[in-house]
Design brief:
The protein is mainly beta. It contains no helices and four strands. The chain has a four-stranded antiparallel beta sheet, with no helix packed on it. The chain is globular.
Length: 93
Amino acid sequence: MLDATFDLDGRAMIPVGVGDAAARGVALSTDGKIVLVGSAFSTAANEDVALVRLGGTGALDTSFDGDGIKLQDLGGANESGDGVAITSSGFIV
């Protein structure tokens, strides 16, 4: 059974970037925030690592990069994050 307190229906669809996006890893912090990592297109031709942080209710955590979403260009054309962890100090790696 889905938890209806999470984004009102138990599911969250988060638009990230300018085209297709995919989550490939998830981590839960000790304060209950959810971090997703994957990829998203920052331009029509450039796919970057995407990080998204949600609060426990499924809403974007705007204290993370101002809007809850961070696209990180590592210098390549097709980049993706495949796993994520959160250190005991709260750092995302």
